[in-house]
Specification:
about 130 residues, Rossmann fold, 5 strands
Length: about 130
């Protein structure tokens, strides 16, 4: 298994909280073992999707606070170095949230836990 710390992508984060059976066995082990990192980019993505009606979360603010507590996760802010790392990424994936998560994982030396096949094509440690 790829060693952590583990950065959860947004889908993995949501599944870990609401539907852990959707996670692969290695992903479940990573979530249980930690250490876990959650990006503010995932929080941002959830807020946007809730406002568009694409995701059902009653209160994204309390959801985020609860998620970080339940998973005992460290919160990773988006920093200038992460945005700079975007410049070097090939155009494999068009989703800006997935791209910043890849850049953060690369810059911070984190293993990205994701089921997204396109994300796993980047030069970044991934686990699923």
């Amino acid at each position: 298994m790829v060693e952590g710390p583990y950065l959860l992508d947004t889908s993995t984060l949501m599944w870990a909280l609401a539907s852990p059976e959707r996670l692969s066995r290695p992903a479940r082990k990573a979530v249980q073992a930690g250490p876990l990192v959650l990006s503010v980019a995932s929080y941002w993505e959830v807020v946007i999707k809730v406002r568009k009606g694409l995701v059902t979360v009653a209160d994204p603010v309390s959801w985020w606070e609860r998620a970080t507590e339940l998973l005992a996760a460290t919160v990773l802010s988006v920093r200038a170095g992460h945005v700079s790392a975007l410049h070097g990424l090939p155009e494999l994936h068009k989703d800006p949230f997935d791209r910043i998560l890849v850049a953060q994982a690369q810059a911070e030396g984190l293993a990205l836990v994701t089921s997204d096949d396109l994300v796993r094509r980047y030069a970044v440690k991934t686990l699923w």
